[in-house]
Amino acid sequence: MARFYCLSLESSLFGDAVLVREWGRIGTLGTRRLDLYADAVQAQEALRRLAASKFLRGYCSVG
What we know:
Blueprint: E1 3-11, E2 17-25, E3 31-37, H1 40-56
Antiparallel strand pairs: 1-2, 2-3
């Protein structure tokens, strides 16, 4: 089954760093989760760890 997983960093209205995670089957809207962090450094580290774990599971980078 073809699946996608998308990670991105954004900022909230209150200045917090937000790690946006989206996943699901290709062709669907999927699920979205927002994780708040006090600063961008913590969010970048979380993104790096999640990306590494997804690469180990067989996901690949596109674009």
